[in-house]
Structures are given as C-alpha cells and as structure tokens.
What does this fold into?
Amino acid sequence: MPQKLVRESAVLHELVNFDDHVDTIAEAPFSMYWGVSKLGTPEFQEFLKDPYRAIQDRIGIPADYQVHTTILGHQTNFQMAGVCANIIVLPAERLVHMTLF
It folds into this structure.
C-alpha cells in the first residue's frame, strides 16, 4: 500500500491524501489524492515526461506499478496558472490512475 506520508515538492505541491480525511476512502481498497501544480515550470515539464517518478517520490508507489494518465481540457491549452490532479492508487491492480485537469 502506498505511504500515507506526502512529501513536499515543486510538482503537485498541495497534494492531499483523502485517506487521512474521509473515513469511507480510508477503508476502501484504494488510496485517493488530489493536488495542484504550477504550470510553466521545469518541474512540471519533467512531470509530464515522467509522471511515475514524480508521484513515486511523493506517495511511495512501488516500481512495478503502471501509471495511466488522462489529461482533460486540451482545448484550453493549459493556459491557466495551474493544473489539478486526481490520483487514485489501486494496489490490487498495481495501478495508478491520474487525471489532470
């Protein structure tokens, strides 16, 4: 199971672990995170190239987990100051599903 500790980082710097705040999620067979990242930084560019490394460092997922990433809102060309991420970690499937919007 991923670590409960969420480390500080320039990417997804406001990452919140819902397991710590919502009892029904804490009891679920998955972990759920939400975070915000500033656009236009070198860290965010690296995050887009290798999202696994960025989230592995933050939530401690094992190396054999797959990461599936969905980006919503392409029509806006990420012209905002930041992007939100919803991350669901499914240990039984050894899968991380990340949605950026």
